[in-house]
Amino acid sequence: MQVIPNEIYTLKETEEILKLSRSTILRLIKKSELKTVKIGRQHRILGREILKMVRYIEN
User: Residue ranges of the domains in the chain?
Assistant: First the structure.
């Protein structure tokens, strides 16, 4: 799956892209390692934040 920097992704899509569990994604959000925008009770993640996380995991 190609990640577009200005696209908005759901938590589920982010899980699939990063191949991490929901609890791991939520832990990264809580530790401010993955920035999100919260709309109501739902998190939305910009593609550029996912790309930053991929670069972080690779290093």
Answer: 8-58
Q: How confident is the model at residue 55 (pLDDT cuts 50, 70, 90)?
A: confident
Distances (CA, A) of 35 to 12, 24: 15, 14
Pseudo-torsion of CA 26, 29, 34, 37, nearest 10°? 110
Radius of gyration of the chain (CA): 10
Of the candidates 53, 42, 47, the one whose C-alpha atom is nearest the C-alpha of residue 11 is 42
pLDDT at 57: 67
